[in-house]
Amino acid sequence: MAVVEQYARAHIVTDAVIPDDEAVPVVLRYDPETDPRSVRVGLPGTHEWTFSRSLLEQGLRAPTGAGDVRVWPCGRVQAIVELHSAQGVSVVQFESKALLRFLRRTYMAAAPVTR
Question: Which strand (E) or helix (H) includes residue 57?
Answer without folding.
Answer: helix 53-59
